[in-house]
Design a protein that fits this description.
The complex is a heterodimer of chains A (about 400) and B (about 210). By secondary structure, chain A is an alpha+beta fold. Helix content of chain A is about 55%, strand content about 15%. Chain A folds into two domains: about 5-50 and about 260-394, no CATH class; about 95-225, no CATH class. Chain B has one domain (about 1-210): 3-Layer(aba) Sandwich (Rossmann fold), CATH 3.40.50.300. The chains are: A alpha+beta (about 400), B alpha/beta (about 210).
Amino acid sequence: MNTILIKILIKRFKPVSLIISGVGLLLGLTLIFLCIQIYMSLFRSFSEQVSKSDFLVVSKEINLLNTLFNADATIPEEEINDLKSQPFVQSLAYFTPNHFTVYAQLTGHTNLGSELFFESVPDEFIDNLPTDFKWNVGDAVLPIIVSEDFLNLYNYGYAMGSGLPQISKSTISMVQMQVILSGAGGKHIMKAKIVGFSERISSVLVPHNFMEWANKNIGAYSGAPKPSRLILKVNKKFAAQIEKYLSNKSLHINSEKLGASKLGAITKIALDILIVVAALFILFSVTILMMHFALIIAEAKPDLALLFQLGYHAKTITKHLFVFFFTFVTIVSFLSILLFVALWNYAAYELTQRAIEFDKNLRVELLGYISLVFLTILSFGLISLTLMLSREKK
Amino acid sequence: MNIKFHQVTPSPLDGVTDVYTQIWQREVEFNCSKRYIIAAPSGRGKSTFIHLIYGLRKDFRGQISIDEKNINDISAHQWAEIRQNKLSIVFQDLRLFSDLTPMENILLKVKLGAFTSMQKIEEYFEQLNICHLKNKPCKYLSYGERQRVAILRALVQPFECLLLDEPFSHLDSKNAECASSIISAECTVRNAGFIITSLGNALPLSAEIEYIL
């Protein structure tokens, strides 16, 4: 580097302009890094997320009539067929209820037991399906999946209130239970084991083939299934349409799940807007910086003319100005990465405090995006400087 | 290296026909290993002549060529190469960076090709009696002192022809002779020539050919 050349060019830089564009660039870069990181954390495994909240559990709304007249809450077949033909429904399944009584108790504690119910759905509708959720005729142990909500209700409601120990997901699978199934077909006692938890389905699930076997052999039930609950796999794009359709048919949905996807859509739009704002921030800051360079080059016109007269190439001068630009952008980028990491950790801490679950890890892909933004700014600077100086040369 | 003037009239002298000249509107060839004096009173275009050769002015009729190449066809990049290696110049108005010291002004030139060693530069400073000024910003130097810095700057780069535009105008005879002997010695060593302009008065630098502008 030619220090004398730098001395001639750099003495003209105004600290105020540099600080203004530096702060703008810092904020813009930090904001864009944050947006990208949030984007990747929230919508990381987008398909996974979609499939999670794309399942809706639908039931007939329970009103006073049902209660008073013990009316049937089953969903009629024509409604099911109509539902099947809707564009937003990708697939649909019934919840099969038990047609026998279930009494469950802890092994060795005959006084610790409760009446229970079972439901079953096809495996593909179950989230976090454990591999041991299988049953064959003759198997002595019945695998059960319960809703995560039940565990939470127990841990945060019942156990805390009554001084019982809290149970984790792994400890509950060690609890030995037995179930007494009785119906018109006889009585059957078997061991049971909780093998998994479902976020999606609020129920006590058993394998579908067990349910068919038990309804037939223990319940001696051979009628057509009378579904009162359905599980739908829907296309989330139609969220508003789904809501409208179901309320017209007086079907009740777990609207919070649908709401989550709505919230997701709003968050996404907000993030998109933020990214545009951040990009504009960066664009304006770099433009201010380049205008500052243009001003410096204009002011240094006599000096530049003399340098050309002494035999300096425009390229050499461009190189020296670019080194300054490069140093400036590198320092600001580095600071913005520090600021971004600090803000992200703060946000992660705050969200953890509020018990909001999300992916806190910084994503490796972010490095790619940072380099992309960095290189774009540098090429923009290099091209502008080259153009400015080639104009000066003439 | 050779420089040819073919029927050249610079714009400032357009329409001036009543004066005797050996260069304007004529065929003249400069062989750069030779030493030339261009003599004329003020206003006859001496600086214009120097600037035309150095590629700083484009406002002329006729044709000028350097090494058989029309100077209008020489690119900015090629001019930079010529000014680094073939033509060196002492401007009449010196054109030093006034905020920089004499040493920095010299180094700015040296950085282009590192032709001259630091030891040699120190020697030049010594010989020209400006050694004590070398780290003082040029704006605090007298015109005569700056003129010596400008001469020194022209000598630290390689050249085939040195263009000197009234280089001794503000030097006393002792300093002028000193500068002349350095220039003469350098030209001999490099087998280079020079073109010097003068107002017609006697110069301490002797030349082989003299033209009247």
